[in-house]
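Subject: sequence -> C-alpha cells, single chain

Hey, anyone have a minute? Need the predicted structure for the following. Not urgent.
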Amino acid sequence: MVTPGGRNVFHFKLTKPSTAICGMCGAKLNRANLTPAQLKRLPKTQRRSERPMPHLCSRCMREEIKKTLRG
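Reply:
Had a minute. Here:
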C-alpha cells in the first residue's frame, strides 16, 4: 500500500487464535483462547494446563490412563 507521502507500507492483520481441540476426538478444550502477546503477560502456571496430558480432553485422557495401567 502506498501512503499519500509516497512511502510503501505493509499492513498486517492480526488473526485471532482458534479454539484448542482434543488430539484424539477433536472436542473443544476448556482453555482460554489468547494471542501470543496476551500469553506472555500471564504467569507461567496460567499459560499451561495442570494436567498429565494437556492436549487431550478429560474423557480421552481418562481412557489413555486406563490403557497404560491395564497394559
